[in-house]
What we know:
By secondary structure, the chain is mainly alpha-helical. It is built from ten helices and four strands. A hairpin with a 2-residue loop joins strand 1 and strand 2 (about 10).
Amino acid sequence: MSNTHNGGWVPAPGAANQVPTNPAASRDWRIRQSLWLLLPILGCSCLGGAGLIYVGLRARRAAWWIPGIVYMLVGWAAFAVTGESDQQSALSSVATAVVLASWIANILHACLINPAWLRWRASHTPWYAQPTAPPPTWPGNPYPPTTAPPTIADLTTSAQAYYGAGPAATSVPQQPAPPVAPPAPPSPPATAPRPLDVNAATFEDLAALPGFGAERANWVLAERHNRRGFGSVEDFAMVANLAPHEFAGLRNLLTCTPPPQPPAGYSPHGRVLDV
């Protein structure tokens, strides 16, 4: 027993051991699969090519659906010329003859294709009706259907049984760990530089200050000598002609020890006599 599904043969349940019969042997099946011929016959050259397009696309044969497109284009063009031209003109007669010739050629072409179409339908099985391949059995399958894949322990045992247990593993004495060097003592914190006394600074001390140079250091030393010392750091900055940002950077680096005051009655020009 057999059933037809979508034109292809499908085995009936319980008929696995029976030889399938060709569905084309059934006359009813051939009639059902030949109903597409009604399109060329009743389409009157305009829709007749649709039948060839249908069977050509189903069977994936360009030699069938390309002529169907040609028949439809020729039929539409001939009908358009017939409708637009004068009924008594020669152009209308030629267009009518083209319509009839295209119609007859389409019918004959479809009848010639139909036997090949029936053979294709009888041998074609849809993808969803194709039987699935059973899983491979031993020895094609790497493992028997009822046997689980071997584990690592099974493979190790088999390898030892085939190649031998091999030499016994010898223990390697552990090497003593290298001594750990003691951590280095922390470095003493850097001490802040001692402030520079502007009344005791030498030429080298002044020239090493940020923003100073030889010319400014000489000028400051000359003024300090004339003044016999600076009274404050601000006096030093005014004499050195320091800008506000320069003085702000040197303020914490400078100090001033006021010079000793001369005794009372002392005059640089000599002794002052009391009258």
